[in-house]
Amino acid sequence: MCGIVGYIGERQAQQVLLHGLEKLEYRGYDSAGIAVFDGQAIRVKKKLGRLANLENTLNGHGLPGVLGIGHTRWATHGRPSDANAHPHGDCTGRFVVAHNGIIENYLRLRQELIQAGHQFRSETDTEVVAHLVESLYDGDLLRTVFKVAAKLRGAYALVVMSAEEPGRLVAVRKHSPLVVGLGDEENFVASDIPALLNYTRNVYVLEEGEVADITAKAVHCYRLDGTPVSKEVLTVTWDVDAAEKGGYEHFMLKEIYEQPKAVADTLTGRLSDDNRAVLPELHWTLGMARGIDRIHIVACGTAYHAGMVGRQILERLTRIPVEVEVASEYRYRDPIYTDHTLVLVISQSGETADTLAALREARARGARVVAVTNVVGSSVAREADDVIITWAGPEIAVASTKAYTTQLVALYLFACYLAQIRGAADPATIEEVLAGLRDLPDAVSKVLDTAPAMKAFAQQFAWKESAFFIGRGLDYVAALEGALKLKEISYIHAEAYAAGELKHGTLALIAEGVPVIALATQDHLYEKTVSNIKEVKARDAHVLALTWTGDEEMASVADEVLYLPRVSPWLAPAVVAVPLQLLAYFAAVERGNDVDKPRNLAKSVTVE
Ligand code: M6R
After folding, report:
1. Which of 225, 258, 327, 568 has the fewest Cβ atoms surrounding its Cβ within 10 A?
2. Could you tell me which residue ranges the SIS domain spans (predicted)?
3. Residue 237 burial by CB count (10 A; 0-12/13-18/19+): exposed, middle or buried?
4. Is 597 within the bounds of a domain?
5. Which atom of ligand 1 is nearest to the CA of 601?
6. 414 & 462 share domain
């Protein structure tokens, strides 16, 4: 997501800001900008694309001054462009703001500010903050920021500076991280520690709802109601590489642990108080929604598995026939479209060549295309008719984790949304899914506690030649995703089977000690799955079963049992995914593999 850097002291701010932004590049971004106070006024330079583009613009036209803020933007509201890049200013140029996160009520605020005569230059939610500061400024930037924050809804980190008070930066943390770097006659603020490590190892980590008033000589912290807070200095002992990973050994592990937040972010603003799925980004008429008579879901790899879950929930809730297919096959199959076929493409990166080609084929054939993607401004997002963004934040490890769970969330929301506007085929299941979605961040957080158990299991089986994943219904889809994860980073041969299909051939491969991971979260299929576990046990397989807490039977059937916090079986794939990701991760670590960059694979597959 976006990166923020702020500096006040005696050095030339531009160098500090650019260096800090470079250290935040790992977070992913599409444009960058800096604002520096030159003694008279605030000067701003912003550029679409890599930081190098901004640096080239500054070459020979640098911004002198010792107070400044910088930003790398990961587009959310408004496409990536020079104008939408941060920092953003007010009408007078006296105030500038850098922001990470989302201001949920920005549309209403923007309308109010426009009515009051403010002129906007970007499509961003952030710009409302600069204009609010301008309209509420009372001679004291800190006091003004308290007043502004009281008007904002959403998750954000903000850094504000003003030409009226050039000795000061004010920073606010509400859900999005911020750290203050403590120097000698200089201070810093940034979204993450790597941006600071060149200058200081002493930091204040701002907590939820805290505000920092930063001058060159001192940093004072407050709660949003103005109560002073005394902070403890944290001395950072990690190196830069570890700091980028937030102290985790690998990006994959960090991203696994980010899932409760990623899921919560993807749900933000999309569940109404009267229990409806809200997707204002779909510009649909009722007639269009009601007219859809078949759905094609197209994606690759992990996104395809999300699509397989999507098919089951969409068919159950809408009774529209759904096909799901990998994009590399779909694009050459000459699929059959009706006049009202909807095509749903799913892609984390939004750049996967086969998925993009499938999207183009579908549009050329007259189908309406909805994209589920994690990257605003990606090719898929630009070319689709409608876009549902997953707010997972940048995913750096090649193995997809938080992108997958957020794709599932987007698909659950989409299915409920479509079912609700068409007149639900199954209102009870919609209610169950929506209630489950509300609790999902918590369930995903709890299931992370399975890490020690998955580590122990992974260490036992890391050197086996092959492993089997079995399940029925949605557990079969979860098994496919578990097997893919294990293959791609541990290089263990792993296969997933619909549990009932084993005896039609694959059972021949089950022998003494062969690891079988059995998923048993689908209550209506539980007994059948238990029978299939008994079949592999009878061939001396070593079975790890994943089932709900409270299952009293499984311990007598499987060799090992992992108990999961209970959620609606419809949402089980989002919960089961986490221990299976951990299993793959720990097996890969045990084998000494390059977890984040597995052999032969790329994060974004932009070739056929
Ligand atoms: O960016 P996309 O979602 O389109 O990528 C699709 C697949 O390449 C991707 O999910 C891949 O399977 C992952 N590496 C799996 O972890």
Report:
1. 225
2. 284-424, 457-598
3. exposed
4. no
5. 14
6. no
Domain presence at residue 493: yes
Specify the residue for token string 């007149």. Answer: 423
Same domain, 92 and 182: yes
Note the pTM of the prediction, 2 decimals. 0.75
Q: Would you say the CB of residue 488 lies under 6 angstroms from ligand 1?
A: yes
CATH number at residue 474: 3.40.50.10490
Q: Which residues are catalytic?
A: 2, 603
State residue 1's pLDDT score.
Answer: 64
Instruction: State the closest ligand 1 atom to the C-alpha of 603, by its place in the atom list counted from 1.
Output: 14
> What is the Å distance from ligand 1's center to 25 Cα?
21
Residue 405 inside a domain? The answer is: yes
Per cent of the chain over pLDDT 90 is 82
Q: How far is the CA of 4 from the centre of ligand 1 (A)?
A: 28
Residues 286 and 408 grouped into a single domain: yes
pLDDT score recorded for residue 242? 67
Reference 515, options 468, 478, 557; nearest CA is: 468
CB 303 near ligand 1, within 6 Å? yes
Angle, CA 374 vertex, CA 371 and CA 380 arms, to 5°: 40
Q: Check if 398 has its Cβ closer than 6 Å to any atom of ligand 1.
A: yes
- Ligand 1 centroid distance, CA of 349 (Å): 8
For atom 8 of ligand 1, the residue with the nearest CA is: 301
Q: Are residues 523 and 424 in the same domain?
A: no
Domain containing residue 538? 448-590
Closest to 4 (Cα-Cα) out of 126, 163, 112, 151: 126
Phi-psi region of 301 (alpha: psi -120 to 50; beta: other; left: phi over 0): left
Q: Does residue 168 contact residue 6 with C-beta atoms inside 8 Å?
A: no
pLDDT at 607: 63
Q: Is 302 in the pocket of ligand 1 (CB under 6 A)?
A: yes
Question: What confidence score (pLDDT) does residue 606 get?
Answer: 64
Instruction: Give the distance (Å) from ligand 1 centre to CA of residue 137.
Output: 47
**What residue ranges of the chain have pLDDT lower than 50?**
none
534 with 425, same domain: the answer is no
Q: Is the CB of 348 under 6 A from ligand 1?
A: yes
**Is 599 domain-assigned?**
no
- Answer whether 354 contacts ligand 1 (Cβ < 6 A): no
User: Atom 11 in ligand 1: which residue has the minimum CA distance?
Assistant: 301
Beta bridge partners of 32: 47, 72
DSSP state of 214: E
Burial 375-397 (b: 16+ CB within 10 A, else e): bbbbbbbebbbbbbbbbbbbbbb
Give me the number of domains the chain comprises. Answer: 3
> CA-CA distance, 553 to 557, in Å (whole number)?
7
Q: Whose CA is closest to 372, among 360, 381, 383?
A: 381
Q: Tell me which DSSP letter residue 505 carries.
A: T
Ligand 1 closest atom vs CA 399: 16
Quote the pLDDT of residue 238. Answer: 67
Task: Report the CATH number at residue 48.
Answer: 3.60.20.10
Residues 323 and 403 in one domain: yes
The answer on 276 and 234 residing in a single domain is no
Considering the domain architecture, whether residues 137 and 169 belong to the same structural domain is answered as yes
Q: Which of 180, 209, 244 is the last residue of a domain?
A: 244
